Amino acid sequence: MITMIAAAGENNELGKDSYLLWHLPDDFKRFKQLTTSHHIIMGRKTFETFPKPLPNRTHIIITRNKDYNKKGAVVVHSLEEALQISKDDLQPFIIGGGEIYKMGLSVADKIELTRVHGTFNDADTFFPEFSKEDWQVITEVEHEKDEKHKYAFTYETWVRK
Question: Which residues form the DHFR domain (predicted)?
């Protein structure tokens, strides 16, 4: 099962200049819980936002740059290569950014989407639109705004019909 995992605003905003537009500690904890011990597939720009590779995960970086090399990660040049490398993982995760999500939408079986209840006009990266005819939400868990979270959000789990 190939899973895309993302946090997106009401208009599918993901970030600006390769960084998220919000800080949601509980969402970070959920991301860690879901992705630990799995392959995480991402673009080069997403990887470069990490101060170091995330522990207990196999990092697969997709880049067009044939000379790109990063210690602690597997570098590939297509989504197909990334999926081949992660074929023994029962649930590899596609973690972004925007271009990688667009490629992943056609192969994903599941979307773990944190819907951030806000709009962000300065976003430059977006989660792709997906058809409610092809996908159905199977769980929704709401999280209210609080002292640690500037925005309310909902964890949505979508599966392909």
Answer: 1-160
Q: How confident is the model at residue 142 (pLDDT cuts 50, 70, 90)?
A: very high
Which residue has tokens 């271009």? 99
CA atoms within 13 A on the CB side of 50: 20
Query: Looking at the domain covering 3-160, what would its CATH class be?
Result: alpha beta
Query: Which tokens in the block code for residue 59?
Result: 């990092």
What CA–CA distance (Å, rounded) separates 113 from 128? 12
DSSP assignments along 21-89, one per residue:
SS--HHHHHHHHHHHTTSEEEEEHHHHTTSSSPPTTSEEEEE-S-TT---TTEEEESSHHHHHHHTTTS
Q: Where are the domains of the chain?
A: 3-160
CA angle centred on 2, ends 134 and 88, rounded to 5°: 150
pLDDT 10s digits, 100-114:
999 999 999 999 999
